[in-house]
Amino acid sequence: MQEIIPYAGPEAALEALDNGGRFYNLLTKAGDEEIEPAELARVAGVLGGRQRMFLFLEMALSSCSPEEQAVVRSHFSGSLREGEEKHTPQVLSPSLARDQGVAGRSAVITGYPRFIEDKTVFQGFIFIPMHVGKVMTMMPVPIHDQYDVYELRDEESSEATFLANVRGRPRLPERRTRFGGILKETREKKDADEPGGLFLEGCYLTTLSD
């Protein structure tokens, strides 16, 4: 997961976001006081991936007040505003994520991660693209083959949701952390359509003070 340090205020946000895009974005210009999707994509470090762009934006502006965020958004182009309306992440607590989370949608969830040693606590199959000969197909694999799985809890409830990080990465500390990612479902069996558990595939994180 990529760590995000939120912008300290609207000035810092505008300086970072109004960047002209990548070298091939010939129609965007740095410092023109209008922020285009290509400029957000550049600072978010994504190519395409609209969900991840606006997930980055949600987390990067999280330290700004609503009034300060409104100042930043007043510089958005029309196409960037349309994209944000479509791809704004859900903001959920761990205790509500399983009931209110929508599979396939981006989400920001804050809590304390705890690595799951017992793989029977959360299990199931996920589908990943693989080449079979010259054909690309979606193959079911156990979730623990691809991810390290964590329970993510808040302070107010014993209910937890599950967080998946790329397998083999350094363990996440049990500190209060904001995570941004995509909500996904497992399948109970590799050859069945029945949904299993919901989990957050982590993309970004911000460490918070307790």
Explain what the structure shows.
By secondary structure, the protein is an alpha/beta fold. It folds into 2 domains: 2-88, no CATH class; 91-207, Nucleic acid-binding proteins (OB fold (Dihydrolipoamide Acetyltransferase, E2P), Beta Barrel), CATH 2.40.50.140. Helices cover 27% and strands 33% of the residues. The chain has 7 helices and 9 strands. The protein has a 5-stranded mixed beta barrel. A two-stranded antiparallel ribbon has the order 4-5. Strand 2, helix 6 (94-100) and strand 3 form a beta-alpha-beta unit. Helix 1 runs parallel beside helix 4 and helix 2 packs across helix 3. The model has no long low-confidence stretch (mean pLDDT 89).
Using only C-alpha atoms, the radius of gyration works out to 19 Å
Q: What is the CATH fold-level name of the largest domain?
A: OB fold (Dihydrolipoamide Acetyltransferase, E2P)
Number of E-type strands: 9
What percentage of residues falls in helices of 4 or more residues?
Answer: 25-40%
Distance between the termini: 21 Å
What is the CATH homology-level superfamily of the largest domain? Nucleic acid-binding proteins
Reading side by side through the largest sheet, how are the strands ordered?
Answer: 3-6-7-9-8
Topology as H/E string? EHHHHHEHEEEHEEEE
The domain tally reads: 2
Overall shape: it is globular
Rounded average pLDDT: 89
- Outline the low-pLDDT stretches: none
Number of alpha- plus pi-helical segments: 7
Relative strand content: 25-35%
Return the CATH class of the largest domain: Mainly Beta
Pairing-aware structural class of the strands and helices? alpha/beta
For the report, how would you describe the main beta sheet?
A: 5 strands, mixed, barrel
The CATH architecture of the largest domain can be given as Beta Barrel
